[in-house]
């Protein structure tokens, strides 16, 4: 047991059962120590679909302590039991691991609800009494994580109340207080800096956990594993061999019931500023000296600092809005007809940009990033597209079906890696060459299914393990890169419309074709 940071290793727990296990063995996840998670924004989509089920899944995997407590805070006239029912329903509907009555009973016994307005000082006093009671009765030992799954406009109010009520301070070296912040972290550089100043005034930097759930995905972490555990890829990972890098995050869904969040935010702020720039950083960064939070972040910050701003927004950026149409044989509304969206909204539901990384490794290699809703299918991937072979000793007719070699991290949904290269077509008299794919599928090689990103991230918050959380430098660099494009878009008229079920507006194709490249069809 490590009293100083309030958690114990899984090895502590196993020690009496397995005295032969080396305590330095890191193969299995650690179990969180005594703690409570206080959830603000319990009625939102994210809480119901991701956070609550992830907490249950962690409990089911035996990774939460028996006395774990979950406290909901909202302006609802609910008793503990009512909130427990909400959690129960969300867990039943969205949990990844099987629903087990005994796990649920154990979790439910630590569920509390505090009714109150986010701006009401008295409600925080009542929250204080509740967490003190939990410290006494469930042994949560003063270890409290405040999870802010609330509209960003409410961050200042909640942070100020956490400070003035004393909830933000543990007052003892043996216990901790942490805050978890969901994106968006501001809407441009200036507002992100303001938010950071505000958070810094309440919590020390080591206690702030900014969630970018892409970093919690196994396939995203695998980018570092593949790049730095192997010999055969790294020699090719540079401008000598790479022609371009294409990072795609395509969703087939529209904005659903999220008009309130999405309108005024758009694809660039919603996912490119965070998820896609993180993917770029992991793909392009140099080898860190260790996988500690500081060392990995140092390399990410270096590469993000080397990203140059597009010289021409017209040529190097594209945006669009999905139009009404058909998707998968079903009629779908256009963005401007969605409930809660103004018919004059200029928010983009698709964005594509070309970025360059000014380093010796990447000089001259375009990084194309694109993200959108209502595209052809749900897929996220990072594709490294290689240059042509300098010489092809074949008839031109024999290599008509050979394109560029590619190495593709398939982030989701079909998790794995594809390597595309040319191979001889059997039964042809000449040496006919055609593209073939070599596939690694997670499901074929590993028995365990991957945990949801939120399971990993919530566990890391409770353990106080920071490597998978972006620091404010990364957030600010993201805005520095994107602000000039967003500013220009602000001044311009409406985005182009694109067909639902397609792959974005014509300007996205023009953008890449101008460089002599083409989008990969994922
Ligand atoms: C979120 C965005 O960060 O990621 C959503 O706010 C998007 O708009 C979601 O739908 C997609 O997440 P995933 O894990 O399904 O790719």
Based on DSSP secondary structure assignment, what is the total number of beta strands? 18
**What's the pLDDT, averaged over the residues?**
93
Overall outline:
globular
Number of helices: 16
**Domain module tally:** 2
Distance between the termini: 47 Å
CATH architecture title of the largest domain: 2-Layer Sandwich
Residue windows where pLDDT falls under 50 for at least 5 positions = 1-19
Percent of residues in beta strands? 15-25%
> Ions, cofactors, ligands: which are bound?
6-O-phosphono-beta-D-glucopyranose
Largest sheet: 10 strands, mixed
Q: What is the assigned CATH homologous superfamily of the largest domain?
A: Dihydrodipicolinate Reductase, domain 2
- How helix-rich are the residues, as a percent range? 25-40%
CATH class of the largest domain: Alpha Beta
Descriptive overview:
The chain is of the alpha/beta class and 522 residues long. Helix 10 (266-284) crosses helix 11 (293-305), helix 10 packs across helix 15 and helix 11 (293-305) runs parallel beside helix 15 (472-491). The two termini are 47 Å apart. It has two domains: 31-182, Rossmann fold; 215-389 and 470-513, Dihydrodipicolinate Reductase, domain 2, CATH 3.30.360.10. The strands form three sheets. Strands 7, 8, 9, 12, 13, 14, 15, 16, 17 and 18 form a ten-stranded mixed β-sheet that branches. The protein has a six-stranded parallel β-sheet with strand order 3-2-1-4-5-6, with helices on both faces. A two-stranded antiparallel sheet has the order 10-11. The model is unreliable at 1-19 (pLDDT under 50). It is globular and about 80 Å long. The protein contains 16 helices and 18 strands. The longest helix is centred in the last third of the chain and has 20 residues, at 472-491. Bound molecules: 6-O-phosphono-beta-D-glucopyranose. 6-O-phosphono-beta-D-glucopyranose (BG6) is lined by residues 251, 270-271, 380.
């Amino acid at each position: 047991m490590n009293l100083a940071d309030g958690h114990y290793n899984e090895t502590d727990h196993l020690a009496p059962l397995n005295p032969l296990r080396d305590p330095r063995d890191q193969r299995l996840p650690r179990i969180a120590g005594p703690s409570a998670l206080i959830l603000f924004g319990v009625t939102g989509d994210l809480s119901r679909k991701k956070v609550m089920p992830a907490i249950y899944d962690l409990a089911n995997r035996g990774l939460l302590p028996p006395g774990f407590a979950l406290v909901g805070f909202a302006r609802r006239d609910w008793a503990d039991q009512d909130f427990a029912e909400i959690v129960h329903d969300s867990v039943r509907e969205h949990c990844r691991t099987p629903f087990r009555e005994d796990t649920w009973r154990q979790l439910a016994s630590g569920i509390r609800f505090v009714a109150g307005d986010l701006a009401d000082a008295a409600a925080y006093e009542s929250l204080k009494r509740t967490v003190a009671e939990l410290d006494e009765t469930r042994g949560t030992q003063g270890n409290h994580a405040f999870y802010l799954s609330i509209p960003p406009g409410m961050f200042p109010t909640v942070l100020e109340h956490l400070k003035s009520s004393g909830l933000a301070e543990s007052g003892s070296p043996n216990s901790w207080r942490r805050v978890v912040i969901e994106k968006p972290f501001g809407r441009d550089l200036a507002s992100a800096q303001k938010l950071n100043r505000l958070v810094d005034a309440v919590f020390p930097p080591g206690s702030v956990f900014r969630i970018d759930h892409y970093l919690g995905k196994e396939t995203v972490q695998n980018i570092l594993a593949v790049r730095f555990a192997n010999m055969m890829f790294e020699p090719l990972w540079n401008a000598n061999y790479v022609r371009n890098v294409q990072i795609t995050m395509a969703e087939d869904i529209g904005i659903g019931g999220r008009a309130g969040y999405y309108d005024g935010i758009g694809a660039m702020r919603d996912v490119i500023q965070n998820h896609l720039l993180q993917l770029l950083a992991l793909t392009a960064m140099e080898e860190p000296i260790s996988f500690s939070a500081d060392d990995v972040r140092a390399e990410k910050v270096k590469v993000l600092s080397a990203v140059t701003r597009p010289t021409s927004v017209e040529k190097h950026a594209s945006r669009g809005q999905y139009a009404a149409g058909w998707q998968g044989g079903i009629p779908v509304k256009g963005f401007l007809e969605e409930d809660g969206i103004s018919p004059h909204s200029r928010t983009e539901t698709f964005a594509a940009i070309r970025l360059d990384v000014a380093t010796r490794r990447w000089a001259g290699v375009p990084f194309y990033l694109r993200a959108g809703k209502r595209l052809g299918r749900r897929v996220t991937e990072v594709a490294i597209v290689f240059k042509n072979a300098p010489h092809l000793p074949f008839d031109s007719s024999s290599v008509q079906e050979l394109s560029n070699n590619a190495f593709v991290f398939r982030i989701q949904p079909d998790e794995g890696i594809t390597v595309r290269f040319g191979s001889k077509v059997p039964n042809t008299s000449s040496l006919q060459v055609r593209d073939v794919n070599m596939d690694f599928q997670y499901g074929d090689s590993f028995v365990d299914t991957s945990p949801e990103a939120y399971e990993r991230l919530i566990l890391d918050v409770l353990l106080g393990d920071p490597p998978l959380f972006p620091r404010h430098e990364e957030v600010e660099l993201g805005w520095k890169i994107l602000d000039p494009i967003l500013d220009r878009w602000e001044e311009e008229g409406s985005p182009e419309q694109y067909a639902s079920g397609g792959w974005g507006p014509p300007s996205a194709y023009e953008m890449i074709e101008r460089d002599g490249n083409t989008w990969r069809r994922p």
